[in-house]
Design brief:
Length: 466
């Protein structure tokens, strides 16, 4: 957002007229070829590359963010081109210029369509930078995409009519042709999938933000001069509103049958909250400089007080008495609950280099399981099962590992344990409080034969395999 704002405020390609550095003037960036190349972009080509790189990083971190901010980048470029096309008197696009395009509709009839030349130039200036951003995006994200397999199985359409839920289509899956009901291409039309948010829910969640938005719109109609940044804020508001209402029409299909909109709504409105928070802060300072501040301030102050009651009540309800400060160290809870495991984690972080695989007990989401891999960064055979299932879209992927991890800990068959450990390239085996709890028939003797004990604190042990 900060990068796009900076480019939005100063969108003209880099000017070299006022630069006196002779090395710069002789560089490739000041060459006629580069200037001609830059003329196709509303933003500087290096800015295009930077945007593509940042979008690739966001996509690799969270695919939803990559798509959302690609859309924001496109909106910014669209606005800048529109501004140049229709507001800049020196722009080369003129509405009165027209070109003739001959198109064949039905043989042998032909007809001519008159389209303004400005429209084609507008499309060219819009498509070139977006294509350039997409190209750099795919180049930077290629190493990730090469191995990444999307877990989403389609885009669901809410409240689909029976004519679509009953439609049958054929598609090829793993070399086999299967028939599916309620699917056309990537779109899914599932029966009894018609969840919507109530108006009062939307009001509670977003009413605070839209008070500032409506106040801002009224303010803009009254002021004589608007700032350039005002347009950028309006673009953020437009995109945020789109993200809020999009889950009321579609959802991305995942593994959750009952809460099929949950992930889609969370990922979209999470970013909408960030953008609307930025907008609200700007709007508050903007309006407070004008005459409306005498009406706006008491109303906004009242809403801010009401909103702040939520963290005041909600945080203690989960964390308890705030006077008992725990700190920001996410491992602190282990000192009390699993002190020996805590010491083992400190030892791993201090002594293990690289990312060897460490075996630990698997368990359910939002529990203390996967504490070793989470606090060391070391990969494990299976962490939180449901999350691993979600990320892969098929329970058949993590399911066998549940039994195999159990077999490694409990089996007395040395060859079976060795075979499974080699299968997952396990280098270290962790035995702590949760392993004893999860696998009551845990057999430690075989690990002394397969490797050596490298750490022990009370009953917590770490074995290094040969």
């Amino acid at each position: 957002i900060a990068l796009l704002l900076a480019l939005f405020v100063n969108s003209d390609p880099l000017s070299t007229d006022e630069i006196t550095d002779e090395k710069w003037k002789k560089s490739w960036f000041n060459s006629p070829l580069f200037k001609k190349f830059s003329s196709y972009f509303v933003l500087h080509p290096l800015s295009i590359v930077l945007i593509g790189f940042i979008l690739a990083v966001m996509y690799m971190t969270n695919a939803w963010d990559g798509a959302i901010y690609l859309l924001l980048s496109s909106l910014v470029i669209l606005y800048l081109i529109w501004e140049k096309a229709y507001k800049n008197s020196q722009d080369s696009m003129h509405v009165d210029q027209e070109v003739e395009v001959i198109a064949q509709v039905q043989k042998p009839k032909w007809f001519k369509i008159k389209i303004p030349k400005s429209f084609w130039l507008f499309c060219q200036r819009l498509s070139v930078p977006i294509i350039a951003i997409m190209f750099t995006f795919f180049v930077f994200s290629f190493p990730y995409n090469y191995y990444f397999k999307p877990f989403a199985s389609g885009i669901g359409v809410l409240c689909a009519p029976d004519s679509l839920t009953n439609v049958e289509t054929k598609r090829m899956v793993d070399g086999k042709i299967i028939t599916e009901k309620g699917r056309i291409g990537p779109f899914l039309f599932e029966k009894d999938h018609c969840q919507h948010s109530y108006w009062w829910e939307l009001l509670i969640l977003y009413g605070f933000f839209y008070f500032f938005i409506f106040a801002f719109l009224i303010y803009l109609t009254l002021v004589k001069k608007a700032f350039r940044i005002d347009a950028f804020i309006l673009l953020l508001i437009l995109l945020s509103t789109f993200l809020i209402f999009l889950p009321e029409f579609i959802y991305v299909k995942d593994i959750y049958p009952a809460h099929y909109r949950a992930n889609t709504m969370f990922k979209l409105v999470f970013q909408a909250f960030i953008m609307l928070s930025i907008c609200s802060a700007y709007i508050f300072t903007r309006i407070m400089r004008g005459r409306l501040r005498f009406i706006f301030f008491p109303l906004s102050l009242l809403l801010i007080i009401l909103v702040m009651t939520y963290p005041y009540l909600a945080i203690p309800s989960y964390y308890g008495d705030l006077k008992m400060y725990k700190g920001l160290n996410g491992m602190t809870y282990l000192k009390t609950l699993y002190p020996s495991d805590y010491e083992a984690i400190l030892w791993l972080n201090a002594n293990i280099l690289g990312q060897p695989v460490i075996l630990e007990a698997q368990g359910d989401s939002y529990t203390d399981y996967a504490r070793i891999s989470a606090n060391t960064g070391l990969p494990t055979v299976l962490g939180w099962t449901v999350h691993e299932w979600l990320w892969r879209g098929d329970y058949a992927v993590p399911a066998p590992r549940i039994t195999e991890v159990k077999d490694i800990y409990e089996t007395k068959d040395l060859s079976l344990a060795k075979k499974l450990l080699e299968k997952y390239h396990v280098k270290y085996i962790f035995i702590g409080a949760l392993e004893y709890e999860k696998y009551p028939a845990l057999d430690e003797q075989k690990f002394n034969k397969l490797g050596k004990l490298v750490f022990q604190k009370d009953r917590t042990k770490i074995y290094e395999l040969k």
